[in-house]
């Protein structure tokens, strides 16, 4: 069952709040346990000082063993020395001084952590020492000497040893909070990525021909299904329009043929010529609209083809009837090449005969034919050049002597738009609109550039679009 985005968001918010609450509880409980542990060690230090000075009873968990001599420092161990005075400063002696030695296999205890060092009472200093021992996990040996008395070995592992310390769950709390945040952000990224993928597919020109991906949250699935249904209806309407136009074009063929036969019987040459031109314009308009609709549908399957061979075939057709259409050789396109041990250099790509791509051959032939026809209509000749990069292929058609500007040509890409110098030339203003539609069907675009001899129309195509 696909859950809705609202339900998923509510569930994730509740889980995040529970995880945050658990992390806070773990952190606070661990802090409270450690404060209690340190406070217990501090109180034990106060009782230890009273026992050393006054001979009172030792606190629970602490033992004192007299030593015959001063303690020796084992090899590799670290020693921390402290002197506690009762006058607040080491140079003011009030009562006996207390010498403290802490021997540890791995820790040099910070002297600054002892509050009475350089100030404070001896009892507070001893309590600070035991609190410092409880704060760090080690196996220290504590020795105490009061005045000129013997050294006393103090065993308080049950109070400040590692086994006496509470479990520190603060790292678990931080890990739980980070994990909950990572999961929440991951879910947000997944939902955002699903919508981004859907938006990219919707912007894709192939969305008219291919169904959009259906997945993710329920709302996204409903949106994708609705868009797919709309696209299917739109495509069905276009196909129905093309079918109607095809039927009309076919049905008009017979009356048009009869009209031509009857026009041939008219003795007035001027009237006969005008009628024949009207018939030609009518059939051309029907065929143009039908071609434009078929280009919008893009029903022709994509297949692998040689763009250079296609262009050569189209140019040859124009040259066979004596029209001024030529094909110039493709300019060498530099490509970057190099190795880890040599400098990157430029090298020409392979010969244009190997210019392969995926496309619709009939649609591309129609697009190139329209560009050449426009170049001949608005100029005096057409020069065709092909080229390619790793991702795109292009066909450039340049006329000679055209006075049209780039803005004029971009305006002519609209349906039923004709140039101001078209005169009595045939056409209904759908040529560039068809080219622009075919370019979009191939993931490309139609661009115009000013050339030395005239205006260049460049049809840019994606080499692996479908």
Automatic annotation (TrEMBL):
Transmembrane segments: none
Keyword match Membrane: yes
Origin superkingdom: Bacteria
Cell compartments where the protein resides: Cell membrane
EC identifiers of the protein: 2.7.13.3
Main location: membrane
Pfam families, per the entry: HATPase_c
Source species taxonomy: Bacteria, Pseudomonadati, Pseudomonadota, Alphaproteobacteria, Rhodobacterales
GO cellular component annotations of the record: plasma membrane
Domain called Histidine kinase: residue spans: 247-465
Organism: Paracoccus aestuarii
Name this protein carries in UniProt: histidine kinase
Membrane-related topology note: Multi-pass membrane protein
Transport as UniProt keyword: no
GO MF terms held by the record: ATP binding; phosphorelay sensor kinase activity
Catalytic activities: ATP + protein L-histidine = ADP + protein N-phospho-L-histidine
Keywords: ATP-binding, Cell membrane, Kinase, Membrane, Nucleotide-binding, Phosphoprotein, Transferase
Sequence segments annotated as region (Disordered): 325-345
């Amino acid at each position: 069952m696909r859950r809705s985005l609202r339900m998923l968001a509510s569930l994730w918010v509740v889980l995040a709040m529970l995880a945050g609450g658990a992390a806070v509880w773990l952190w606070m409980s661990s802090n409270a346990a450690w404060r209690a542990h340190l406070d217990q060690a501090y109180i034990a230090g106060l009782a230890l000082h009273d026992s050393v000075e006054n001979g009172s009873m030792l606190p629970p968990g602490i033992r004192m063993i007299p030593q015959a001599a001063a303690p020796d420092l084992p090899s590799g161990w670290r020693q921390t020395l402290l002197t506690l005075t009762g006058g607040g400063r080491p140079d003011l002696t009030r009562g006996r001084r207390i010498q403290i030695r802490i021997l540890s296999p791995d820790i040099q205890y910070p002297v600054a952590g002892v509050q009475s060092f350089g100030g404070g009472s001896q009892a507070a200093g001893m309590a600070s020492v035991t609190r410092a021992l409880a704060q760090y996990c080690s196996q220290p040996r504590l020795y105490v000497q009061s005045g000129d008395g013997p050294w006393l070995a103090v065993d308080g592992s049950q109070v400040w040893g590692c086994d006496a310390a509470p479990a520190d769950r603060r790292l678990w709390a931080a890990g739980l909070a980070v994990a909950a945040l990572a999961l929440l952000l991951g879910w947000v990224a997944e939902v955002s990525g699903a919508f981004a993928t859907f938006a990219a597919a919707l912007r894709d020109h192939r969305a008219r021909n291919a169904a959009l991906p259906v997945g993710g949250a329920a709302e996204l699935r409903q949106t994708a299904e609705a868009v797919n249904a709309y696209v299917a209806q739109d495509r069905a309407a276009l196909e129905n329009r093309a079918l109607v136009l095809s039927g009309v074009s076919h049905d008009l063929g017979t009356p048009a043929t009869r009209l031509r036969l009857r026009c041939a019987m008219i003795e007035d040459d001027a009237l006969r010529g005008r009628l024949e031109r009207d018939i030609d314009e009518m059939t051309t308009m029907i065929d143009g609209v039908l071609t434009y609709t078929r280009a919008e549908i893009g029903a022709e399957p994509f297949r692998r083809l040689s763009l250079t061979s296609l262009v050569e075939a189209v140019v040859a057709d124009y040259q066979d009837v004596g029209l001024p259409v030529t094909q110039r050789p493709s300019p060498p396109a530099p490509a970057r090449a190099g190795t880890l041990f040599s400098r990157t250099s430029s090298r020409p790509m392979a010969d244009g005969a190997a210019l392969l791509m995926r496309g619709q051959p009939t649609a591309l032939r129609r697009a190139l034919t329209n560009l050449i026809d426009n170049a001949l209509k608005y100029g005096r000749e057409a020069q065709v050049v092909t080229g390619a990069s790793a991702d795109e292929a292009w066909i450039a058609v340049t006329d000679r002597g055209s006075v049209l500007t780039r803005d004029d040509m971009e305006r002519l890409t609209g349906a039923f738009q004709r140039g101001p110098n078209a005169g009595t030339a045939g056409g209904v203003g759908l040529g560039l609109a068809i080219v622009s539609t075919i370019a979009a069907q191939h993931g490309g675009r139609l661009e115009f550039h000013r050339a030395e001899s005239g205006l260049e129309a460049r049809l840019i195509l994606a080499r692996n679009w479908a």
